[in-house]
Design a protein that fits this description.
heterodimer; A: alpha+beta; SH3 type barrels; 5-stranded antiparallel sheet; 2 helices; B: alpha/beta; Rossmann fold; 3 domains; 4-stranded parallel sheet; 16 helices; 16% strand; globular
């Protein structure tokens, strides 16, 4: 929950709501990207970004080497596995209403 | 130096440990009064135990494991409130998995679920909102938990619920804030701290400026630290360097993630949705002024505390439980009377045994519980 997990933004799902699909260690899920967007880095420029994700919200942009290193540490701490499991068990964010 | 060879960068770790040793050697630290450095954040605690960092440090340095595990500091009364909300037939209660096993006075959320309450684990508050969208006839409550790291996610979800006109969604807000907590620690007469490792991901949201009082008013050094073992060792070295030079500054070792002025969109969401509570109750630490947040009046309809009559009863920690003393660093986890006997990660009595970020669970998992039990 507090350590977060790195992921890479694959596509933008909803421009206005700033929702994007990320790949997190092979798991795909939707996250909110409003905290990494500003005038200099608009929504459209986020595709391909590596980000640190906390409970479904991208909170910080990071570089790829750092993302890989962080993922290794999180795996050693057992935190990465816990995050994947939490994502797997959680209902998908935009399942049909 | 038990685990140092496990580091991907063992050579760098060894160099840092040697640097720390030679720095400490020049500082004339008395044998009976080691330097006390507190890591505030539970993520640091986990990493410190996992990599055996305490065992690498010279005896002149003692790490004090601070209160920065939001699951661990949740008081029994608040868990009871959760159970009371969750047991209402119209409610679907959603929570992060970490909070499921925190003991209440009668039961945990996990036990409430076993008894028939509709309690669902979610990865994100956004998923709780989806549950609300998909179950319009039910009241969906999200258990908002955590320091400033997760505070924006709950706020942004409430803003989204408002925007989408979702009325059957509310938050049981137990978010807590770091600055009053550090101030309470500094004001505590039990504690003699010489410096701090500042939290990484809280600081990613709030920046470095809110800690200035630690340096300016209390004259204590703080280094905002990353979570990797090398980050932690380097940050300890930076704290020591400040102590040696007689400086008290807020330094940022984790600048790759922590901007000095924090995350603007996250801070905007926080100030729009929350206001400070007069006080908030902490397990083991008691009441701390202004240490929690609640929803502003504008968002009252999303506030589970106003939507449902919660008992809000204050319940004392179990008598045998010494979580408070461990949290303040007065005793080490294994010095607690019930550590590893009446209190284990499988059957936690105190909250520090619940989460891997709690000092007791981390020590139990990595710290050689057998050797301490055997020694007694």
């Amino acid at each position: 929950m507090c350590l977060g997990i790195p992921g890479r933004i694959l596509r933008i799902d909803d421009d206005a709501k700033m929702l994007a699909t990320v790949d997190v260690g092979g798991v795909r899920r939707q996250v909110n990207i409003c905290c990494i967007v500003d005038d200099e880095h608009p929504v459209s420029s986020c595709i391909g970004d590596w980000v640190l994700i906390h409970v479904g919200f991208a909170m910080s942009r990071i570089d790829e080497a750092q993302a890989i290193q962080t993922l290794k540490i999180l795996t050693e701490l057992g935190e990465a596995q816990a995050e994947y499991e939490a994502m797997r068990l959680s209902p998908p964010p935009r399942e049909a209403a | 130096m038990k685990y140092v060879d496990e580091f991907r960068d063992g050579a760098k770790a060894r160099i840092l440990v040697r640097e720390i040793e030679s720095l400490v050697a020049t500082m004339g630290v008395p044998d009976d009064r080691p330097l006390h450095i507190m890591e505030v954040c539970g993520g640091h605690t986990h990493s410190i135990f996992r990599y055996g960092i305490e065992g690498m440090l010279p005896k002149e340095i003692e790490l004090v494991h601070g209160p920065g595990c939001p699951v661990c500091v949740l008081p029994i009364g608040r868990v009871d409130d959760c159970v009371s909300i969750a047991e209402r037939p119209e409610v679907i209660f959603t929570t992060f998995g970490d909070a499921m096993r925190v003991p209440g006075s009668k039961k945990s959320l996990l036990q409430a679920k076993a008894d028939g309450a509709d309690v669902r684990m979610v990865y994100s508050p956004m998923d709780a909102l989806t549950v609300a969208r998909n179950n319009p006839e039910r009241d969906v409550v999200f258990f908002g938990l955590g320091f400033e790291t997760t505070m924006p996610s709950t706020a942004l979800t409430i803003l989204q619920a408002e925007g989408d006109g979702i009325r059957n969604f509310s938050v049981f807000c137990n978010h807590i804030t770091i600055v009053p907590t550090i101030k309470a620690i500094l004001d505590s007469p039990d504690l003699k701290l010489d410096g701090f490792l500042g939290p990484g991901h809280v600081s990613m949201v709030i920046g470095a400026a809110p800690y200035e009082f630690v340096a300016n008013f209390y004259r204590k050094p703080m280094v905002i630290a990353g979570f990797e073992p090398l980050d932690i060792l380097q940050s300890i070295w930076m704290v020591l360097q400040q102590i040696k030079e007689g400086r008290a500054d807020i330094e940022n070792q984790y600048a790759r993630i922590v901007p000095d002025d924090g995350n603007a969109p996250a801070l905007r969401a926080i100030s729009r949705v929350y206001e400070l509570r007069e006080f908030f109750e902490w397990r083991g630490l008691g009441s701390i002024d202004h240490s929690g947040v609640k929803l502003r009046d504008n968002y009252a309809s999303f506030d589970a505390e106003r939507k449902f009559a919660v008992p809000n009863v204050k319940i004392a920690d179990p008598e045998a439980c010494q979580c408070g003393e461990v949290l303040k660093g007065v005793i080490k986890p294994w010095q607690c009377k019930v550590f590893g006997s009446a209190c284990t990660p499988e059957m936690p009595l105190g909250a520090l045994m619940v989460s891997s970020e709690g000092a007791c669970a981390a020590h139990y998992q990595y710290g050689g519980v057998k050797q301490h039990v055997a020694a007694e």
